[in-house]
Amino acid sequence: MSIEVNPIEYNHRDTVLQGMVAVDTATVQPRPVVLVAHAWGGRDDFAVQKARDLAKLGYVGFALDLYGKGVLGTNKDENSALMTPFLEDRLLLQARMDAAVTAAAGVAQADASKIAAIGYCFGGLCVLDLARTGADVKAVVSYHGLFTPPGNLSARKIKSKVLILHGYDDPMATPDAMVGLANELTEAQADWQIHAYGSTLHAFTNPAAADPEFGTVYHPVADQRSWRSMADFLKDSF
Protein backbone atom coordinates (compact mmCIF):
# COMPACT_ATOMS: atom_id res chain seq x y z
CA MET A 1 0.00 0.00 0.00
CA SER A 2 1.30 3.43 -0.98
CA ILE A 3 -0.99 6.36 -0.14
CA GLU A 4 -0.48 9.59 -2.06
CA VAL A 5 -2.25 12.86 -1.32
CA ASN A 6 -2.43 15.54 -3.99
CA PRO A 7 -4.32 18.82 -4.41
CA ILE A 8 -7.01 19.29 -7.03
CA GLU A 9 -8.51 22.64 -7.97
CA TYR A 10 -12.11 23.06 -9.06
CA ASN A 11 -14.54 25.95 -9.29
CA HIS A 12 -17.96 26.99 -8.15
CA ARG A 13 -19.16 30.21 -9.71
CA ASP A 14 -16.28 32.66 -9.20
CA THR A 15 -14.69 30.80 -6.31
CA VAL A 16 -11.57 28.68 -6.80
CA LEU A 17 -11.68 25.69 -4.47
CA GLN A 18 -8.93 23.24 -3.59
CA GLY A 19 -9.67 19.69 -2.56
CA MET A 20 -7.15 17.05 -1.55
CA VAL A 21 -7.29 13.59 -3.12
CA ALA A 22 -5.87 10.54 -1.35
CA VAL A 23 -5.38 7.27 -3.22
CA ASP A 24 -3.52 4.02 -2.86
CA THR A 25 -1.26 4.08 -5.91
CA ALA A 26 -0.61 0.35 -5.59
CA THR A 27 -4.14 -0.21 -6.96
CA VAL A 28 -4.84 0.70 -10.58
CA GLN A 29 -8.52 -0.13 -11.03
CA PRO A 30 -11.26 2.46 -10.38
CA ARG A 31 -12.70 2.40 -6.89
CA PRO A 32 -15.52 4.12 -4.97
CA VAL A 33 -14.88 7.72 -3.95
CA VAL A 34 -15.77 9.10 -0.52
CA LEU A 35 -15.91 12.85 0.00
CA VAL A 36 -14.95 14.37 3.35
CA ALA A 37 -16.79 17.57 4.29
CA HIS A 38 -14.81 19.66 6.76
CA ALA A 39 -15.86 21.31 10.00
CA TRP A 40 -16.51 25.04 10.38
CA GLY A 41 -12.84 26.04 10.19
CA GLY A 42 -12.30 24.91 6.59
CA ARG A 43 -10.49 22.12 4.76
CA ASP A 44 -7.85 21.45 7.38
CA ASP A 45 -5.34 18.72 8.20
CA PHE A 46 -8.01 16.78 10.09
CA ALA A 47 -10.16 16.46 6.95
CA VAL A 48 -7.16 15.53 4.82
CA GLN A 49 -6.16 12.84 7.30
CA LYS A 50 -9.66 11.37 7.10
CA ALA A 51 -9.29 11.27 3.31
CA ARG A 52 -6.01 9.44 3.78
CA ASP A 53 -7.64 6.98 6.20
CA LEU A 54 -10.39 6.31 3.65
CA ALA A 55 -7.74 5.58 1.02
CA LYS A 56 -6.33 2.95 3.37
CA LEU A 57 -9.78 1.33 3.33
CA GLY A 58 -9.59 1.06 -0.45
CA TYR A 59 -11.47 4.21 -1.48
CA VAL A 60 -10.54 7.41 -3.20
CA GLY A 61 -10.63 9.93 -0.36
CA PHE A 62 -11.60 13.46 -1.41
CA ALA A 63 -11.28 16.21 1.21
CA LEU A 64 -13.54 18.85 -0.30
CA ASP A 65 -13.31 22.62 0.11
CA LEU A 66 -16.37 24.76 0.81
CA TYR A 67 -14.75 28.13 1.48
CA GLY A 68 -12.09 28.67 -1.20
CA LYS A 69 -8.46 27.84 -1.84
CA GLY A 70 -6.37 28.54 1.24
CA VAL A 71 -9.28 29.90 3.29
CA LEU A 72 -9.09 28.65 6.87
CA GLY A 73 -10.34 30.02 10.16
CA THR A 74 -7.96 30.26 13.11
CA ASN A 75 -10.40 30.84 15.98
CA LYS A 76 -14.09 30.52 16.85
CA ASP A 77 -15.00 33.98 15.59
CA GLU A 78 -13.33 33.43 12.23
CA ASN A 79 -14.80 29.94 11.90
CA SER A 80 -18.28 31.26 12.63
CA ALA A 81 -17.86 34.05 10.08
CA LEU A 82 -16.87 31.50 7.43
CA MET A 83 -19.71 29.11 8.19
CA THR A 84 -22.58 31.57 8.72
CA PRO A 85 -23.15 32.54 5.06
CA PHE A 86 -23.74 28.88 4.24
CA LEU A 87 -26.15 28.40 7.13
CA GLU A 88 -28.07 31.46 5.94
CA ASP A 89 -28.01 30.40 2.28
CA ARG A 90 -28.53 26.67 2.11
CA LEU A 91 -28.92 26.81 -1.67
CA LEU A 92 -25.31 28.03 -1.84
CA LEU A 93 -24.22 25.24 0.49
CA GLN A 94 -26.01 22.63 -1.61
CA ALA A 95 -24.62 23.96 -4.89
CA ARG A 96 -21.09 23.95 -3.53
CA MET A 97 -21.50 20.37 -2.33
CA ASP A 98 -22.72 19.43 -5.81
CA ALA A 99 -19.61 21.05 -7.29
CA ALA A 100 -17.45 18.92 -4.99
CA VAL A 101 -19.26 15.73 -6.07
CA THR A 102 -18.67 16.62 -9.73
CA ALA A 103 -14.98 17.25 -9.07
CA ALA A 104 -14.59 14.01 -7.12
CA ALA A 105 -16.31 12.00 -9.84
CA GLY A 106 -13.73 13.28 -12.30
CA VAL A 107 -10.71 11.97 -10.38
CA ALA A 108 -8.87 9.46 -12.57
CA GLN A 109 -9.01 6.61 -10.04
CA ALA A 110 -12.66 7.16 -9.09
CA ASP A 111 -15.59 4.96 -10.01
CA ALA A 112 -18.08 7.75 -10.65
CA SER A 113 -21.00 5.35 -10.22
CA LYS A 114 -20.05 4.79 -6.57
CA ILE A 115 -19.90 8.00 -4.55
CA ALA A 116 -20.45 8.60 -0.84
CA ALA A 117 -19.77 11.47 1.53
CA ILE A 118 -18.89 11.83 5.19
CA GLY A 119 -18.83 15.07 7.14
CA TYR A 120 -17.81 16.41 10.51
CA CYS A 121 -19.73 19.03 12.56
CA PHE A 122 -20.70 21.67 9.97
CA GLY A 123 -19.64 19.10 7.36
CA GLY A 124 -22.18 16.70 8.85
CA LEU A 125 -24.90 19.21 8.00
CA CYS A 126 -23.42 19.56 4.51
CA VAL A 127 -23.62 15.85 3.71
CA LEU A 128 -27.16 15.70 5.07
CA ASP A 129 -28.10 18.53 2.74
CA LEU A 130 -26.45 16.65 -0.11
CA ALA A 131 -28.77 13.73 0.60
CA ARG A 132 -31.74 16.05 1.08
CA THR A 133 -31.34 17.39 -2.47
CA GLY A 134 -31.86 13.88 -3.84
CA ALA A 135 -28.30 13.71 -5.12
CA ASP A 136 -27.20 10.48 -6.78
CA VAL A 137 -24.93 9.55 -3.90
CA LYS A 138 -24.93 6.04 -2.47
CA ALA A 139 -24.50 7.01 1.17
CA VAL A 140 -23.81 9.86 3.57
CA VAL A 141 -22.39 9.75 7.07
CA SER A 142 -22.76 12.64 9.51
CA TYR A 143 -20.30 12.75 12.41
CA HIS A 144 -21.52 14.96 15.28
CA GLY A 145 -23.32 17.03 12.66
CA LEU A 146 -25.85 19.82 12.86
CA PHE A 147 -29.41 18.74 12.11
CA THR A 148 -31.27 21.95 11.22
CA PRO A 149 -33.31 21.24 8.07
CA PRO A 150 -33.05 23.67 5.15
CA GLY A 151 -35.93 25.90 4.25
CA ASN A 152 -35.57 25.49 0.49
CA LEU A 153 -36.32 21.75 0.24
CA SER A 154 -39.46 19.84 1.05
CA ALA A 155 -41.23 16.60 0.12
CA ARG A 156 -38.17 15.13 -1.57
CA LYS A 157 -37.30 11.47 -1.42
CA ILE A 158 -33.82 10.78 -0.09
CA LYS A 159 -32.10 8.18 -2.24
CA SER A 160 -28.87 8.00 -0.27
CA LYS A 161 -28.48 5.69 2.69
CA VAL A 162 -27.93 7.80 5.80
CA LEU A 163 -25.87 7.10 8.93
CA ILE A 164 -25.85 9.56 11.83
CA LEU A 165 -23.04 9.18 14.37
CA HIS A 166 -24.01 11.38 17.26
CA GLY A 167 -23.03 12.31 20.79
CA TYR A 168 -26.21 12.13 22.84
CA ASP A 169 -25.09 15.01 25.06
CA ASP A 170 -24.14 17.25 22.11
CA PRO A 171 -25.48 20.72 23.03
CA MET A 172 -25.50 21.73 19.35
CA ALA A 173 -27.85 18.90 18.37
CA THR A 174 -30.16 18.01 21.24
CA PRO A 175 -32.08 14.75 21.66
CA ASP A 176 -35.21 16.56 20.43
CA ALA A 177 -33.34 17.64 17.30
CA MET A 178 -32.17 14.07 16.81
CA VAL A 179 -35.76 12.80 16.96
CA GLY A 180 -36.79 15.55 14.57
CA LEU A 181 -34.15 14.41 12.11
CA ALA A 182 -35.32 10.80 12.44
CA ASN A 183 -38.86 11.91 11.62
CA GLU A 184 -37.63 13.95 8.66
CA LEU A 185 -35.64 11.03 7.25
CA THR A 186 -38.60 8.69 7.71
CA GLU A 187 -40.91 11.08 5.86
CA ALA A 188 -38.32 11.27 3.06
CA GLN A 189 -38.38 7.44 2.83
CA ALA A 190 -34.66 7.24 3.56
CA ASP A 191 -32.78 4.11 4.60
CA TRP A 192 -31.40 5.60 7.81
CA GLN A 193 -29.58 4.73 11.04
CA ILE A 194 -28.72 6.81 14.09
CA HIS A 195 -25.98 5.69 16.47
CA ALA A 196 -26.07 7.82 19.63
CA TYR A 197 -23.16 7.57 22.05
CA GLY A 198 -23.87 8.16 25.74
CA SER A 199 -21.93 10.70 27.80
CA THR A 200 -20.54 12.10 24.55
CA LEU A 201 -20.42 15.73 23.46
CA HIS A 202 -19.82 17.53 20.15
CA ALA A 203 -16.62 16.98 18.12
CA PHE A 204 -15.99 13.62 19.78
CA THR A 205 -13.75 12.42 16.92
CA ASN A 206 -11.31 15.33 17.17
CA PRO A 207 -8.37 14.80 19.56
CA ALA A 208 -7.92 18.58 19.73
CA ALA A 209 -11.44 19.09 21.14
CA ALA A 210 -11.07 19.97 24.83
CA ASP A 211 -13.59 22.70 25.65
CA PRO A 212 -16.39 21.27 27.80
CA GLU A 213 -17.93 24.73 28.38
CA PHE A 214 -18.35 25.08 24.61
CA GLY A 215 -19.54 21.48 24.37
CA THR A 216 -16.63 20.04 22.38
CA VAL A 217 -14.70 17.15 23.96
CA TYR A 218 -12.81 14.28 22.36
CA HIS A 219 -14.12 10.83 23.25
CA PRO A 220 -11.67 8.13 22.09
CA VAL A 221 -14.06 5.20 22.56
CA ALA A 222 -16.86 6.87 20.58
CA ASP A 223 -14.29 7.90 17.98
CA GLN A 224 -13.18 4.29 17.46
CA ARG A 225 -16.68 2.85 17.54
CA SER A 226 -18.00 5.40 15.06
CA TRP A 227 -15.18 4.78 12.58
CA ARG A 228 -15.88 1.05 12.63
CA SER A 229 -19.58 1.70 12.12
CA MET A 230 -18.83 4.00 9.20
CA ALA A 231 -16.50 1.46 7.57
CA ASP A 232 -19.14 -1.27 7.77
CA PHE A 233 -21.84 1.09 6.53
CA LEU A 234 -19.85 2.18 3.48
CA LYS A 235 -18.96 -1.40 2.63
CA ASP A 236 -22.64 -2.36 2.73
CA SER A 237 -23.70 0.74 0.78
CA PHE A 238 -21.33 0.07 -2.12
How many independent structural domains?
A: 1
Average pLDDT value? 97
CATH topology: Rossmann fold
CATH architecture: 3-Layer(aba) Sandwich
Strand arrangement within the widest β-sheet reads 1-2-4-3-5-6-7-8
Fraction of helical residues: 25-40%
Helix-strand string: EEEHEHHEHEEHEEEH
Q: Treating each run of at least 4 consecutive H or I residues as one helix, how many helices?
A: 6
Using DSSP, what is the number of strands? Answer: 10
Low-pLDDT runs of 5+ residues are none
Largest sheet, in brief, is:
8 strands, mixed
Q: Beta fraction of the residues?
A: 25-35%
Distance between the ends:
21 Å
Task: Write up this protein.
With 238 residues, the protein is an alpha/beta fold. It has one domain: Alpha/Beta hydrolase fold, catalytic domain (Rossmann fold), CATH 3.40.50.1820. The protein is built from six helices and ten strands, in the order βββαβααβαββαβββα. It has helices spanning 45-56, 76-88, 90-105, 122-132, 175-187, 220-237, and strands at residues 3-12, 15-24, 31-37, 60-63, 110-120, 139-143, 161-167, 192-197, 210-211, 216-217. Strands 1-2-4-3-5-6-7-8 form an eight-stranded mixed β-sheet, with helices on both faces. Strands 9-10 form a two-stranded antiparallel ribbon. Helix 4 (122-132) links the parallel strand 5 (110-120) and strand 6 (139-143). Helix 2 packs across helix 3 (90-105) and helix 3 (90-105) packs across helix 4 (122-132). The protein is globular, with a radius of gyration of 16 Å. The model has no long low-confidence stretch (mean pLDDT 97).
